[in-house]
Specification:
By secondary structure, the protein is of the alpha+beta class. The chain contains seven helices and 18 strands. The mean pLDDT is 97. The structure holds flavin-adenine dinucleotide.
Length: 297
Amino acid sequence: MIDIYTKLSNFAPIKKDVSFKTMTTLRIGGTAAYVATPENMIALQALIETIKKLNIPFKVFGKGSNILCGDGYYPGVIILLDRHFDDYYFDDENIIAQAGCSIIAIAYGAMKKGLSGLEWSCGIPATLGGCLYMNAGAYKSSMKDIVTEVLVLKDGNFVWLSNEECQFAYRKSIFQQHPDWIILACKMKLKQGDSKQIASLMDDRKARRMATQPLNYPSAGSVFRNPQDTFAWSLIDGIGYRGKQVGGAMVSDKHPNFIVNSGNATCEDFLNLVNQIQTKVKATYDIDLIMEVEKFN
Ligand SMILES: Cc1cc2nc3c(=O)[nH]c(=O)nc-3n(C[C@H](O)[C@H](O)[C@H](O)COP(=O)(O)OP(=O)(O)OC[C@H]3O[C@@H](n4cnc5c(N)ncnc54)[C@H](O)[C@@H]3O)c2cc1C
C-alpha cells in the first residue's frame, strides 16, 4: 500500500487530519486529510507532480476568506502558500510579490513607499493569490487595474500571463476555469503619490469597514454577488432577513450581505440560509442571487 504521507513529506511539511475551521475565516467545516506547506517553487512543482501521480485531489487555500467548507472529510491535500510564499519587492512604482503575501501587508508597504493604487484592499483578510483568483476589489477598484503579469504553475510549467490573458472581470478571472493552475507570484504597477494622503485614504476605508461590517464575527465577507443595478444587501433586507438565523449561521444585523458564524455553525446551516434567501429574493424580486463565497468539498 502506498504511504501517501511519506510520499508527500518528501517535498513539504505535511500535517494530517486538519480541521477546516482553522483554515477559513468562517471557521466552518470538516477535516482535510493532508495539509502541505511547501517552502519554494521547485518543492511545490514536485509536490503537485506527486499528488497527480497518486491521483488524489488537491486545492490551494489563501487565507480561506472566501471559502465555505463542507462538514465532511476531504480525502485530498490542502496546499497553503501563506507560510513561505510571502516575499515582495519594490522597484520604482513596480511591485513583484509572491502569491502567499497578505494583500494588507503589500498595501501598507506600498503606502510607505508613497505608491497609490492598493488603498482599496486594506481590510481584506486575503492573500495575493486569492485576490487574483477572485479579482478582488472594493470602491470601484480591483486587481485588474494594477496587475501587469501573473506567474502560474500550469501543467507542470512556470508561465507568465499578461493582464489580458488573466481575463479579469467583476469577481472573475481565468483561474476560476482552471482549478489545477497555481498562482505563484504577480507583478503590479502602482502610481507615485503622497504617503500621508495614501495613509489617510486607507484609514478612511478601514473606518468605513469597521462601521458597516460585522468584523466581530467569523465570516467570508459578502455572500452574494451584487446583481446588475442593485445591491444584494438591500434585496436581503427587503425580504426581512436581517438578523435571520438558521442554527449557528446568521444574517448579520449590521450588513445583510454577510452571513456570520454566530457559534458552531455548520455548512448545512449556512447553505440552508443561503437557499431560503435565494428562494425568497427570486419570489419577491424575480432576481437570481449568485453566491460569491465558494462552496468547497
Ligand atoms: C471581512 C471580510 C471582508 C472582505 N472584503 C472583501 C472586499 O472588500 N472585496 C473582495 O473582493 N472580497 C472581500 N472579501 C472576500 C475575500 O477576502 C476575497 O475573495 C479574497 O480574494 C480571498 O482571498 P484568500 O487569500 O482568502 O483566498 P481563499 O478564500 O483562500 O481562496 C479563494 C479561491 O482562490 C483560490 N486560490 C487562492 N490562492 C490561490 C493560488 N495561489 N493559486 C490558485 N488559486 C488560489 C482558492 O483555491 C479558492 O478557490 C472579504 C472577506 C472577509 C472575511
